[in-house]
Design goal:
9-stranded mixed sheet, 2 domains, about 290 residues, alpha/beta, binds NADP nicotinamide-adenine-dinucleotide phosphate, N-(1-d-carboxylethyl)-l-norvaline Dehydrogenase, domain 2
């Protein structure tokens, strides 16, 4: 069993760190808001640490799951960062959805200390984290991935090493472009069906299992029709992720018109104050005729 540090006990990190305990690992946690870490330690048998460095000291693995690039830098780098606590031979895994540039930067900083690095953004939502069935898209070296995979198995159903550092983040961008298309398509189609006065329960039953079916239709179709968005993957998170896609696409010279369209819809949702609502809330703009 491994000694694991887990930094960031948000919607995703909290249950992920819990799965590590259930799998028998020795888990030390750090969370910026200490009350969350204390609540976690009440629920699971793990140790609360005052800094990322303290959590990572002597650990075999440090897992990070915070918000964005700057958040990751603030918990990994610097005197009190996780990297300062890790010894040679340890492995840092970043589960945050962040830029490929950050992944390269962290891989270099880790290598300078003989620490392995894997960028491993996740997919599967809060339910996937709670049920321990996440998909982890990884970049890094094979030996670091192989070692980390044995531990990540506690909360993952699928783990794929796609290529060198940064490949995990770029694969997550592929994933988010696909999600954007599925959300945009579902929003346009369902709003059209409602405008036509169709019985949407019957429409969903008819189309969800066919060639047009998607995870979004199956899991969000009913709530989109019912105008319910108080759960799920927030507008702000999706907007952040598509911003990462846009800047990477600029560097690559890749065309992403669909991503730009969905970004504009998400931006309008933010202007309307729907920041924390599920990203499928963009259907409201179709209903408003925008
Ligand atoms: N939620 C999903 O369905 C989902 C799915 C796939 C991927 N993701 C990605 O996974 C990551 C985490 O998502 P989440 O839903 O768990 O987010 P969340 O619930 O908002 O939690 C964010 C976590 O990061 C910590 N944090 C943020 N900024 C920090 C900083 N500057 N310094 C230290 N800690 C900081 C927060 O600490 P505090 O408690 O102090 O705020 C909290 O523990 C994001 O990159 C997100 O895009 C999320």
């Amino acid at each position: 069993m491994a000694i694991c540090a887990f930094i960031g006990l948000g919607n995703m990190g909290y249950p992920m760190a819990g799965h590590l305990v259930r799998a028998g690992h020795d888990v030390r946690v750090f969370n910026r808001t200490a009350t969350k870490a204390v609540a976690w330690a009440d629920e699971y048998d793990g140790e609360v640490c005052a800094t990322p460095r303290e959590a990572a000291a002597g650990a075999d693995f440090a897992f990070v799951c915070v918000g964005n690039d700057d958040d990751v830098r603030s918990v990994v780098l610097g005197d009190e960062g996780a990297l300062a606590g890790l010894g040679a031979g340890a492995i840092l895994v970043d589960h945050t959805t962040a830029s490929a540039t950050l992944a390269t930067e962290l891989a270099e900083a880790c290598a300078a200390q003989d620490v392995g690095f894997v960028d491993g953004p996740i997919s599967g939502g809060q339910a996937g984290a709670q049920n321990g069935v996440l998909s982890v898209m990884c970049g890094g070296q094979q030996r670091h991935f192989d070692a980390a995979a044995e531990v990540m198995d506690a909360y993952a159903a699928t783990m794929t090493l796609v290529g060198p550092a940064g490949s995990g983040q770029r694969t997550k961008m592929v994933n988010q472009i696909l999600c954007a298309g599925a959300i945009q398509g579902a929003a346009e189609a369902l709003a059209f069906g409602q405008a036509a006065g169709l019985d949407m329960e019957k429409v969903l039953a008819a189309v969800t299992q066919g060639a047009a079916g998607s995870w979004y239709l199956a899991n969000r179709g009913e709530t989109m029709v019912a105008d319910e968005f108080d759960f799920g993957f927030a507008v702000d998170w999706m907007a952040k992720d598509l911003g990462l896609v846009a800047s990477e696409a600029d560097k690559l010279g890749a065309a992403t018109p669909l991503t730009h369209l969905t970004s504009a819809y998400l931006s309008q949702a933010q202007d309307a104050g729907d920041n924390r609502m599920d990203a499928t809330a963009i259907i409201r703009q179709y209903r408003n005729g925008e």
